[in-house]
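Below is a filled-in request sheet from our internal design queue. Each sheet records the structural input a requester submitted and the sequence that came back. We keep these sheets so that new team members can see what a complete request looks like end to end.

REQUESTER: design group, bay 2
PRIORITY: normal
MODE: inverse folding
CHAIN LENGTH: 376
BACKBONE (tokenized):
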């Protein structure tokens, strides 16, 4: 087993300084010796077989259950080495990747019932969890850093201002409050901002019961219930017309099968002279599939789209693309801030859930592939 592990890993890890100790105590070093040394240890033969047979799924699972131990460096350092090779997928796992690409349309088939279940999996968690690493307004999407060293809270406020400007909203300038639809309204922070400072009449929709309750409670607390309403509703069931549509961090849950439906519905809901802003994670390479570990534990039914998959559907729906902005480095700073806050409260996360859940969260934000992803 040790020989097989060494043979396969040395064909994959050509860069970095990576030391591996097997469950039998044998130590191997891989890479070209550059960069910070990183050491890991397999605590079981099962973990070794898992990494060899299904690395994209079993790598994360073995870290979560403690059978893959990082002894020198951090999980972020391990991921930086693994995802910094010439290919992010070991050559012996490429067939699995191809099969998962073929399977992705079934995995991302998101009718209404399945969409609600997928959203509940990620968002209907203990309310204390998100308050531990998000900003005070609970913006769970890319912030907008206007200057180096800006705090996460200030950067998230800047993001809301930036979106309001793109939507051409300004309190007091319109003869009537423009009607705005917020698809995937989260905990209501953006909708409340656009109602309060953007002068909009806001309708937000979410499939998360937790977010729905909190968003309406926040609107009542701020005296904005008549100008900002949040509904527990699928966007496909809306039947109205709006001057503005905004969707932030929701499009990743739509799935490739439903892009045409999403944009055709948006076009139907949008006034003839309306403005829509879509704010989403985007992949820098072409169409692919969702990492199986991410799909199983973090975002079931989710997928990060490429521009080549999105733009044809926008054009087909009759919408005009007038602006595309890539906020790649802003997202890197956002993930960095989230991770720092999460690690600072990791013991609290473990008290709310357990060590496996905390390890799962710690594995999300260091991913270099996510740091290089774009926000559209």
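RETURNED SEQUENCE:
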């Amino acid at each position: 087993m040790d020989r097989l592990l060494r043979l396969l890993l040395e064909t994959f890890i050509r860069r970095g300084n990576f030391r591996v100790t097997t469950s039998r105590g044998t130590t191997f070093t891989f890479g070209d010796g550059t960069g910070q040394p990183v050491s890991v240890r397999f605590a079981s033969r099962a973990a070794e077989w898992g990494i060899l047979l299904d690395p994209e799924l079993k790598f994360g699972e073995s870290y979560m259950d403690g059978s893959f131990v990082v002894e020198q460096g951090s999980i972020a350092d391990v991921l930086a080495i693994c995802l910094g090779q010439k290919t992010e997928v070991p050559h012996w796992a490429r067939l699995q990747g191809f099969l998962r690409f073929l399977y992705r349309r079934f995995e991302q088939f998101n009718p209404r019932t399945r969409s609600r279940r997928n959203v509940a999996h990620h968002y209907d968690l203990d309310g204390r969890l998100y308050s531990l690493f998000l900003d005070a307004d609970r913006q769970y999407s890319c912030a907008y850093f206007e200057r180096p060293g800006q705090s996460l809270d200030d950067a998230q406020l800047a993001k809301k201002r930036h979106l309001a400007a793109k939507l051409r909203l300004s309190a007091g300038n319109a003869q009537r409050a423009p009607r705005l639809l917020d698809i995937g309204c989260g905990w209501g922070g953006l909708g409340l901002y656009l109602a309060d400072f953007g002068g909009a009449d806001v309708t937000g929709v979410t499939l998360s019961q937790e977010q729905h309750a909190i968003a309406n409670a926040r609107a009542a607390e701020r005296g904005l219930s008549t100008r900002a309403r949040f509904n527990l509703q699928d966007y496909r069931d809306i039947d109205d017309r709006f001057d503005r549509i905004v969707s932030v961090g929701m499009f990743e849950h739509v799935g490739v099968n439903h892009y045409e439906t999403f944009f055709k519905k948006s076009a139907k809901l949008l006034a003839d002279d309306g403005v829509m802003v879509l704010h989403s994670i985007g992949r820098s390479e072409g169409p692919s599939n969702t990492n199986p570990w991410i799909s199983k534990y973090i975002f079931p039914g989710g997928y990060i789209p490429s521009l080549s998959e999105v733009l044809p559907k926008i054009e087909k729906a009759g919408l005009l693309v007038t602006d595309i902005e890539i906020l790649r480095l802003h997202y890197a700073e956002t993930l960095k801030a989230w991770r720092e806050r999460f690690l600072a409260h990791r013991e609290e996360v473990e008290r709310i859930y357990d060590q496996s859940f905390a390890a799962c969260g710690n594995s999300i934000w260091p991913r270099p592939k996510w740091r290089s992803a774009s926000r559209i």
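SHEET NOTES:
- The first helix runs from residue 2 to 12.
- The CA atoms of residues 124 and 270 lie 29 Å apart.
FILED BY: M.R.
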